Amino acid sequence: NAGVMQNPRHLVRRRGQEARLRCSPMKGHSHVYWYRQLPEEGLKFMVYLQKENIIDESGMPKERFSAEFPKEGPSILRIQQVVRGDSAAYFCASSPLASGAPTDTQYFGPGTRLTVL
Amino acid sequence: AQRVTQPEKLLSVFKGAPVELKCNYSYSGSPELFWYVQYSRQRLQLLLRHISRESIKGFTADLNKGETSFHLKKPFAQEEDSAMYYCALSGTGNQFYFGTGTSLTVIP
After folding, report:
1. Does the pLDDT value for residue B31 go beyond 60?
2. B100 vs chain A: nearest CA distance in angstroms?
3. What is the pLDDT of residues B76-99, one digit of tens each?
4. B64 neighbors B2 (Cβ within 8 angstroms)
5. Which of A99, B40, B70, B73 is surrounded by the most beta carbons within 10 Å?
6. 3-class DSSP assignment, residue A9
7. How many CB atoms lie within 10 A of CB B79?
8. B86 CB near a chain A CB, below 8 Å?
9. Residues B94, A108: C-beta atoms closer than 8 Å
10. B44-73 pLDDT per residue, tens
11. Which residues are CB-neighbours of B36 under 8 A, at least 6 positions away?
């Protein structure tokens, strides 16, 4: 099992461009979480998704940010019209948690470091 | 509102000394508490969870519901313990809340 994969590992964008961050969960995991880590700060929850469903997006900025987890393929975190303040490390985690089951461990990816010039 | 507080951003101890990383939480129900660790150049990984009541790499953590704390302890710190430690809480809706992290440095 290759673990949670994230790509790209580093992404550089100019202000106003779009950033697409991908997360492939561990095999058999159907739950994905996205976190943002700003410089000098801790992890902040952004969104929790299951296949084809957004369960909780209370941590997502209201504008420019969106996330999806399609039936096939990786989860995508999309940031439109990036600004310098979006520069951060974005981490994805997956869990095998089944609906109604007790909380399970999260397995983290290596993160994507986004730099906005 | 759910919240996890790690009051110490940086913590330095000498090798062989006891270490305690503090974590306090705010949650109205019965939370599940975790400690995650990130070693240099590695990804974040689970260290321990309170329901397992286990000791991992010499670390233990006891959930104190009266004080709403879940402090991480180790009696004798080792150099390889130097890392970033995050306390996390899982509540209803399976959302996770992380603290801001404590960077532990063990001085040889």
Report:
1. yes
2. 4
3. 999 999 999 999 988 766 678 889
4. no
5. B70
6. coil
7. 10
8. yes
9. no
10. 999 998 877 778 899 999 889 899 999 999
11. A108, B44, B45, B46, B47, B85, B86, B87, B88, B98
Give residue B50's pLDDT. 83
Cβ of A9 under 8 Å from any chain B Cβ?
A: no
DSSP per residue, B26-66: E-SS--EEEEEEE-TTS--EEEEEGGGT--BTTBEE--BTT
The alpha-carbon gap from A80 to the nearest alpha carbon of chain B, in Å, equals 25
Positive or negative CA dihedral for B2, B8, B14, B17?
negative
Decide: helix, strand or coil at residue A84. Answer: helix
Buried b / exposed e along A30-48 (16+ C-beta atoms within 10 A): bbbbbbbbeeeebbbbbbb
> What is the DSSP track for B84-98?
EEEEEEE-GGG-EEE
CA B101 to chain centre: 8
Provide the pLDDT for residue A113: 96
CB A24 within 8 A of CB A69: no
A99 touches chain B (CB under 8 A): no
